[in-house]
Amino acid sequence: MSAELRQHVELEVEDRVQSGMSVAEARRTTLRDFGAEGRWLEEGRSARGWRPVDELAQDGRYAWRSLRRTPSFAIVAIATLAIAIGATTLVFSVVDGVLLRPFGYDTGERLVRLKDVQLAAGGGGRGTIAYANFADMRAQASEWEAAAAYDEWQVSLVEDGVAQRIDAAYVDASWFDVLNVRPALGRFFLPEEAEPGSAQVLVLSWGLWQEQFGGDSAVIGRTVETNGVMRTVVGVAPRGLEDPGLSGGSFGEPRMWAPAPGYFATNSRGARSITALIRLRGGVTYSRAQSEVDGLQAQLVAAYPDNNEGYRAELVPLLEDRTAGVRTPLFMLLGAVGLVLLIACANVANLLLVRGSVRRREVELRTALGAARGRIVRQLVVENMVLAGIGSVLGVAAAALGLRVLRLTLAGQLPRLDLVQLDARVFLFAAGVTLGAALLFGLLPAFQMVRGELAAGLTAGARVTGGAARGLRSAIISAEVAIALIVLVSASLLVRSLMRLEAVDPGLDAHGALAMNLLTPPDLQDATLAGYYDALFDRIRAVPGVEAVGTLDVLPMSGGFNGGAFTIFGRPEPAPQNRPIAELRASSPGVFAALGLPLVRGRELTAADDRADAAPVVVIDETAAQRYWADEDAVGRRIVYADEQFEIVGIVGGLAHFALDRAREPTVYFPNAQAPSWMRDDPALIVRTSVDALSVSDAVLAAIREVNPRVAIARVRPLDSVVAGTLALPRFRTVLLATFAAIAFLLALIGIYGTVSYTVERRTAELGVRMALGASPIGVLTLVLRDGLRPVLAGLVIGILAAVALTRLLASMLFDLSPLDPLTFVTVPLLLAAVAAAAMLAPARRAAATSPMTVLRAD
Amino acid sequence: MTERADLLQGTLDLLVLKTLVLGPLHGWGISKQIRSLSADVLQVNQGSLYPALYRLEDRGLIEAEWGISPEGRRAKFYQLTKSGRKAFASERKNWRVFASAVEQVLGAT
Description:
Shape of chain B: globular
Largest interface: A-B, 25 and 28 residues
Structural class of chain A: alpha+beta
Number of strands of chain B: 3
Radius of gyration of chain A: 38 Å
Number of helices of chain A: 26
Largest sheet of chain B: 3 strands, antiparallel
Strand content of chain B: 5-15%
Number of strands of chain A: 22
Shape of chain A: elongated
Strand order of the largest sheet of chain B: 1-3-2
Helix content of chain B: 55-70%
Radius of gyration of chain B: 15 Å
Strand content of chain A: 15-25%
Oligomer: heterodimer
Number of helices of chain B: 4
């Protein structure tokens, strides 16, 4: 190519020589006219071969400069993109990781849980089953490949004389076959190890093996003391084994498993306290497996009607069971984030349309100067890609940060959260959507222009406000406002509902109380157990700051439950499904003071009652009294439980056992000594202090260890946090939705402000003319506001209608609030309209302040 | 020296296409041809000519080939492609519309 140019020079020199110049002069003038050789070599080079790369770089630099010249546009566009991409990526990743991703060992999703559902109760409940029924089914089910029973278990692991409490599980020997995993070390259980009389064995979790046994492979064959029984470790579970989440109540993930020989066999047909996991045969559909189970259940009902009448056996896919509580809020979030993405795209589109119109002149000029259409289009594409690129990078960073924050704040609330990763596909989708919107709307002006109308383009002073473009912008604003309204109304409903929920009185006085769980070794029984508690309470009361102490077998609002039916002495026996039920508790003297439950009538339980040979008495709470003894004084009445009569000696205040938004459950408190023994060996200890609860915890723990070091202590926490725990999920939902609502609101406002600003700018000439013809500044202000508010009002109307239709989906999450709450539906749109009008005020005032003369002169 | 008018890029393309309608030429030949056909009014700066040639080639309107010039030298010759001929026809029409419009305005009293 330089050869070509060199030749050109030669020919030109010859030509000049022919017309009379000397060779030297011809050369000199030619070179002078040509300019520095390097320059056109360079230009030649950039016009060849390297051109695409060079031009791309040039486009990039131009785009960067052009963005820097309009920083507010660039910042807003990038921020909008970043928020949209980041939020979408985060929420989709969380939904995918929590709800959709199957368990690692469940390829084909064949794992199901067997649940018993009480038909009269309408379907809720934990769904625990009876082993005897399960064993009968297993013997006959042909669609099951493997099945194992499971029961949560706590272990007091004693090493070097110090007891530690470990969450564990009793399982059938076939448990790990159901999961279909291989041991990391050693082996899993043999069928005979579940037979009564067989040697006691144990499998450790990877985590426990590392923490407690140092990851030493010599652990296989070691014996450890668990609840006073020596068990041999035979294997270690694989690393990263995801727990199926079958442990109910306040039990955590099991860190060891044991096939307690004979344990399940003692589980009677009426005591539904275990759960079962089943691996279906390959290729079996859920419905086929379910109909088989229905048939087997019918047989059981026929054979054992007393225990099985009124129950339905259900197979629930494991993933569904594990994520049941969080399905709805997460999908709701997905909807919200989708809406935010829409608004963000609309905003970016609007911003680009505005910018495109402003730059039309520039595009026209460049085309007139000979720029190829392709080049212009490409430059705009590069500009949009720079925007989208920066926005994407920031969005990913925001998503990563958001995930870290989620992990910190929601540690226990969202199941499977610790395994969630940011999903690359989702990121690409979100980035793709926003890039697509950016490209589409950013290139509109270029396409309009580059249709080859040279003449029209060069006409100076053309003020193209563009009817069609304006309609599009208005439509986008209306859509944004509508969407923002929907999200704002939903968030407001949730916020009000949360406030009402937080105002509910839990019944107990949580402030200043400490709670923990104790696990007593099996050698403390009956008399020695009672003696232990006496000594323990005395010792704890001696700790300065302690006001009251007591034990309760199940702590309220900690997920544990122990409901039972009883009969009221002296009344006709009701049908089995109508028997009075209550939460049954084994309590020590002083526990009511520790919990802060007021005594309403009668007396409390004393140490005198807490003896095996004392007269059988109970204390009930107000909820029970109002439900079952509404017209009479319950004190002095008798109830019958487990074939024994108990006299009601007192009534204490009611409390919420499970959640603040449920009706309070009636409670019957038994003295420890008279409660069944299985209620007594794992109590919660509650200590009420006159000072900050945590400040005395060390002293209390020391006191407990002093009395008996073989008693394991776990889960020391303030009672406040137990109550707050029930609010964690509603708080999470509300905070998240409120955040999205705020983002949507902000984006809509930015969109409104930007559009009105631009429109005012474009209409400067028209407004100037109006003012010259006598319109007042106020008139112009009103005009601008009115034109600006029209799409906003349209959006509000659409938004209200849509919200009315959609908020019923939130009904289950609202406490004591209608999804069509009038106050919310009136104030939120008004607020939105007012703020939108305020956003328009600044540009409107600018319009009213234009001097007609300046406007008309400038063209 | 007669006046030199600066040429708009798009117009230059048109002129190059026209020159090549008459037959293949190398770069210098094109600039010479334009100068002589316009009686020295339009003198094409090679800083504009070669970029224009490469642009046209990228658009597929002309194609280049090395050959032997009438002076016996090796030179790069450009010639019109089929789409080049079509483009020339439409660009010429556009130019005529534009030029006569400008003329009309200038001629109005």
